[in-house]
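Entry type: protein chain
Record version: 2
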Amino acid sequence: PEASARFDGRKVTTNRLKEMKGAGVPIAALTAYDYTMAQLLDAAGVDLILVGDSVSTVMQGLETTVTVTMEHMLYHTTLVRRGVERALVVADLPFMSYQVNSDEALRNAGRMVKEAGAEAVKLEGGRVVADTVRRIVDVGIPVMGHLGLTPQSIHKFGTYQVRAQEEQEAEELRRDAKLLAEAGVFSIVLEKVPAALAADVTESVDVPIIGIGAGGGCDGQILDAAGIDVILVGDSVGMVVQGKETTVTVSMEHMLYHASVVSKAVDRALVVGDLPVMSYQVNSDEALRNAGRMV
């Protein structure tokens, strides 16, 4: 049931993510900054693709996210949107693009949707941005929240260590999550907080909680795709790409084709290819021959 719920071919929307939370289906989210990676992640069945302001540290070679501009984010979001058909595309609003006042925040959120094709925007903070969130949502732009370690505030924190370890900060995070949910966010990212706290917050709000370094008790997980060490070219291509109900019809030729496409696009990560059904079960000679073809 979980596999069919994820790979049923439907376009992922904010409502779809809420359905997945309700059904207990884990939400898979990754970051992308360009067309090629967006295509790969979308074809792999990723539910949410975030165009993060982490583009600064991943693509631009900078130490923090605070120097990223609206123009940078509009450019990278446009590239990612071109490569995506199924996943929900969310774009970060960069530092100082929404903090000054709600008029400027609304204007920049609108640009991200209208000019770059984002389907939602993400911004950092709790109580201080709740009114801004409400105003953006009220005009029809979905908003994703972000609590815990908020990288745009790194100069305030002075460290990337785990947040909300003390009860006072933990209680503030709980309140902020509820305030954001009441303001209308469709989801919240919890970054680098204790696993027990993240699980507690996940249970306490109706919106999906996506964790990054927050334990396994969240509704989903997000990672930076640029840091992925292993990419599996799975026989789930049968459901994700071919629209089939199972993986059993996938052939060696299908797997060789898709493994070749992925390998050509990947420089750093280890690429692993699934051997499809009946390509290795008959006897060890055939298994060895097909494993050799995959390599």
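Comment: The chain has a mean pLDDT of 91.
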